[in-house]
Amino acid sequence: MPEAGPLIPADAAARAAMLRVDQAGEFGAIRIYAGQLAVMGNRHPAAREIAHMAEQEARHRARFDAMMAARGVRPTLLAPLWNVAGFALGAATALIGPKAAMACTAAVETEIDEHNGVQLDRLGGGDPELSEVIAEFRAEEVEHRDTALAAGAEQAPAYPLLFAAIRLGCRAAIRLSERI
Questions:
Q1: Is the dihedral of CA 63, 80, 25, 27 positive or negative?
Q2: The pTM is what?
Q3: C-alpha dihedral over 121, 126, 127, 128, to 10 degrees?
Q4: Nearest to residue 119, comparing CAs of 104, 107, 136, 105?
């Protein structure tokens, strides 16, 4: 998927879009995990790991919220949609089973890893603060993906289809949240 080249430091609109979409992504992830935990409760061993990942996503969102406030960046207008869609996706995958819940995490975090890589390439040295935050959080998202894979994500029913569909949904959410 070709993206624009490196940003010039004055491209505040592009940096605002990055913050907006990253904050929306953290919100969506929190809602996905909330849906999964609503179905699983504390009964399944995966629930502890999901709760830990949710805590990290909440910390990421808080940091993006603060950066958005400091820079005067508005959140996406689609947050009510991501609230419902994220919870529904989390609940649906957990209803299929713990491995499907982990497949959801693997798909989302794979897409976010690629998205963050594009962002870092585009930023270049144009915004060291934002680059540092994206790189730090990207490393934790990769850990989430690796945890999900280690927990058997690839053994979920119809894994290739589930994985591809969730990634496609993530791409759409990213594009929409950048703009709206």
A1: positive
A2: 0.87
A3: 80
A4: 136
Q: Do 22 and 124 touch, CB atoms closer than 8 A?
A: no
CB neighbours of residue 173 within 10 Å: 22
> What is the pLDDT, as a whole number, of residue 89?
95
What is d(CA 26, CA 57) in angstroms, rounded to the nearest whole number?
6
Tokens 């994206």, located at residue: 134
Matching residue, tokens 């119809």:
158
pLDDT (0 to 100) of residue 11: 83
CB 88 within 8 A of CB 30: no
Let me know: does 53 contact 33? Beta carbons within 8 Å: yes
Contacts of 108 (CB under 8 A, 6+ apart): 29, 32, 166, 167, 170
| Coil vs helix vs strand at 43 | coil
Q: How many CB atoms lie within 10 A of CB 65?
A: 16
Task: Give 82-122 pLDDT, tens digit per residue.
Answer: 999 999 999 999 999 999 999 999 999 999 999 999 888 88
* Cα–Cα distance measured from residue 64 to residue 78, given in angstroms and rounded to the nearest whole number: 16
Provide the angle, in degrees to the nearest 10, between the axes of the packed helices 128-150 and 45-71.
170
Smallest CA-to-CA distance from 134 within 11, 35, 25, 4 is with 25
